[in-house]
Amino acid sequence: MSAQRESWSARSGFILAAIGSAVGLRNIWSFPYVSYENGGGAFFLPYLIALATAGFPLLFLDYVMGQKYKGAPPTAYRRFIKSAEGIGWWQVAVCTIIGIYYASVLSWAGNYTLFAVGQQWGEDTEGFFFNTYLQNASELTMAYSSQLLIGLVVVWVMVLLILYGGIKKGVELSNKIFIPLLIVMFGVLVARAVTLPGATVGLDTFFAPNWEKMADPKVWLAAYGHVFFSMSIGFGIMVTYASYLKRNANLTGSGLVVGFANSSFELLAGIGIFSVLGFMAQASGVPVSEVVSGGIGLAFIAFPKIISTMGDAGNLVGILFFGSLFIAGVTSMVSILQVPISAVQDKFGWSKNQSVTVIGLGSAIISIALFGSQNAITFVDVIDNFVNNIGIVFGAILSIIWVTWFNRNKLRGLINHINAISSVKVGAIWSFMLTIVTPIALIVTLGLTLKSLLTEGYGGYPANVQLIFGWGVIIICAILALILPRINGHSAPEK
Question: What is the pTM of this model?
Answer without folding.
Answer: 0.93
